[in-house]
Write a structure and sequence with these properties.
heterodimer; A: mainly alpha; Arp2/3 complex 21 kDa subunit ARPC3; 3 domains; 75% helix; B: mainly alpha; two-stranded antiparallel sheet; 2 strands
């Protein structure tokens, strides 16, 4: 599932965007310098293939429900991690702009879940390890299944983390996780099977394609060590920033903590609450998330008072009026310009 | 039978057509529109979760864009509605989980959960609307150019442009494939089974890889060196600066001061 702007806070969204932007720059440099240029049209067309393939629904045998392909792992297998990341990023960008899948801010998160995770985690650490340089049908199946399932689990977990840390949704962490992980397990299995199926098809129909793809990224050439270091750094960086904000949203995590450790923990975190509140008031640049604690008659803390609602609706009506006026004027203006643009016939 | 892929083909084409419109808004440099959209989304998203009134004035931006750009409201609303299920599904838990009453409108007691849910929906409409309006007033190629001028790596923008070109080709092929399948499948009634799906995609993939080879040859024959040159000139001039600075200032003002409460007090005072 795609992350949505509405569920994100600027801090979480911005952090993920920073990570994605950095990865994009890195992959672009890699593609430019190390890979031959026949990859450029291949990247473009394969991305279009994945885009089109995602819209073909098929019935899953046994359940009757429909499934469709994600495509991250297939691209990674055929193009290598760097080119595949750019291809997936481009597909997600087009989907975001044309189909409003998520939103511009959430694009950073979505590219991370469906690009970085399959290309830099599932592919090198799982698929490549299992399949190696001599694929067999069984190895393809295992590699694809595990890669897809684990990749999607991590992606789903990412969505849960980002939603919880943003604090817009009330869903507590544990309930959300309980919901997301099983669904994405099923999706991952389907994805893995479809990936294995298509790759096997290619492997049997035109084995030289697979051999070339495998030769392009021999298992030794993938800097797995570097990848792991990069990921660890990113995790610390992201985790560090996000946990600073997470400490201001104790709702879901606190609930989980309270369940595990008992009342003691709750008490001390309310002290942290107050000191953080003080910090937050000083750093007024950051938005007010609106703590849930409400005192009697403290409607000032509320984002919405009666006056606010009245004012809001007034502005809404004004906005509608302005929009209609502009539209009316635009079409009238065009008629005039048409008149003037008519050549004078003598 | 309207399939997802037919609908997608229509939508992309239609948005493309809208983007080719000729209004002063369309003629603005894409960088201005892109940056303004980013500021818009960031300010909307930065509100606390219980804000409703303060979010409403932000509808001014979509209203102005739709008006100036002469865009069809119903089409855009339908697209927003189409992608709303996930967010509604997540947000609907809010009223259920957050039951403390926050607002009393006479006899009506509204819980915090409902307020945050409505706020969520407003955010959703605004942010999704902003992205759609960006593409509807700017066009994909122009956005790619804007991205490149703003610093995105060229490999990525070339990739975006190539993808865009070939989406139409690949979707066309897929539609023909699916139509051929449904014409030849009597008992399956056009539904694609798992095995057939694998075969279809496998074949499509093989054809795509061959096509890539032909494209590469064609590009080399035309002296492709890795960058796509764009002939259309773009200028970031006075109008663009006004647009960007004006709207950004408005958004930040709306974010920092509670204009709606002031207005509401005014209205309530007058009505007494």
């Amino acid at each position: 599932m795609h992350m949505a702007d509405a569920l994100l806070s600027p801090a979480v969204g911005g952090t993920m965007w920073a990570a994605t932007a950095a990865t994009t720059v890195y992959c672009s440099a890699k593609v430019r310098h190390s890979l031959d240029e026949h990859k450029v049209p291949l990247m473009g067309v394969l991305a279009a293939f994945i885009f089109a393939a995602q819209m073909i629904n098929f019935t899953i045998p046994g359940t009757g429900s429909s499934g469709h392909l994600g495509g991250g792992l297939i691209l990674a297998i055929l193009l290598g991690p760097y080119a595949a990341f750019l291809a997936i990023a481009s597909v997600l960008t087009v989907q975001c702009l044309f189909f409003a899948d998520g939103g511009l801010l959430a694009l950073g998160c979505n590219i991370f879940h469906m690009g970085t995770i399959p290309c830099f985690l599932a592919y090198p650490l799982i698929y490549k390890r299992i399949v190696g340089d001599q694929p067999s049908r069984a190895r393809l199946l295992t590699g694809s299944l595990l890669g897809a399932v684990i990749g999607l689990q991590l992606g789903a977990f990412g969505v849960v983390m980002e939603t919880t840390l943003s604090g817009i949704s009330e869903l507590p962490f544990s309930s959300f996780v309980m919901m997301m992980q099983p669904i994405h397990l099923a999706i991952g299995i389907v994805e893995g099977l479809v990936t294995a199926g298509i790759i096997s098809f290619i492997w049997q129909a035109r084995p030289e394609i697979m051999e070339k793809a495998a030769a392009d990224q021999p298992i030794g050439a993938l800097p797995i060590g570097k990848i792991l270091i990069g990921l660890a750094t990113a995790t610390v960086f992201i985790g560090g920033i996000l946990s600073w904000y997470a400490s201001q949203h104790p709702d879901g995590l606190e609930w989980a903590t309270a369940r595990i450790t008992g009342n003691k923990e709750l008490k001390s975190s309310s002290e942290i609450h107050q000191s953080l509140q003080g910090v937050q008031q000083q750093t007024a640049v950051l938005p007010d998330y609106g703590f849930k604690e409400k005192k009697e008659g403290d409607s000032g803390r509320l984002g919405t008072s009666v006056a606010g609602l009245v004012g809001g609706f007034t502005v809404l009506l004004l906005a509608l009026a302005i929009g209609l006026l502009l539209k009316r004027r635009g079409s009238v203006g065009h008629d005039h310009s048409h008149d003037h643009s008519q050549p004078h016939h003598h | 039978m309207s399939r997802k892929i037919d609908q997608a083909f229509y939508d992309i084409g239609h948005l493309d057509t809208l983007a080719a419109g000729d209004t002063p808004l369309h003629r603005l440099d894409p960088r201005a529109k892109l940056l303004t959209t980013v500021v818009f989304i960031l300010t909307v998203v930065s509100f606390g979760k219980y804000e409703i009134g303060r979010l409403l004035p932000f509808f001014l931006y979509p209203a102005v864009l739709i008006g100036l750009g002469e865009l069809p409201l119903t089409f855009l609303l339908k697209k927003v509605l189409l992608v709303s299920p996930f967010v509604i599904f997540i947000g609907i838990f809010n009223p259920w989980l957050d039951r403390e009453v926050m607002l009393q409108l006479g006899p009506l007691a509204i819980s915090g959960g409902w307020i945050s849910f409505i706020s969520l929906l407003l955010r959703f409409t605004l942010t999704i609307g902003a992205a759609l309006l960006l593409i509807a007033t700017t066009g994909f190629a122009a956005i790619c150019m804007a991205l490149e001028k703003l610093g995105a790596p060229q490999v990525f923008t070339v990739q975006l442009l190539l993808l865009y070109r070939y989406i139409f080709v690949l979707i066309g092929e897929s539609i023909r494939m699916m139509r051929a399948h449904s014409l030849r499948s009597f008992s399956a009634k056009g539904r694609i089974t798992y095995r057939v799906f694998l075969q279809m995609l496998g074949n499509l993939l093989l054809r795509t890889i061959d096509r890539a080879q032909r494209i590469h040859m064609a590009m080399l024959s035309r002296a492709f060196t890795g960058e796509l040159k764009i002939v259309r000139q773009f200028r970031f001039g006075y109008k663009e600066i006004c647009f960007l600075v004006g709207f950004s200032a408005l958004f930040i003002l709306l974010r920092c001061t509670d204009v709606t409460a002031l207005l509401g007090h005014l209205v309530l005072e007058i009505s007494r």
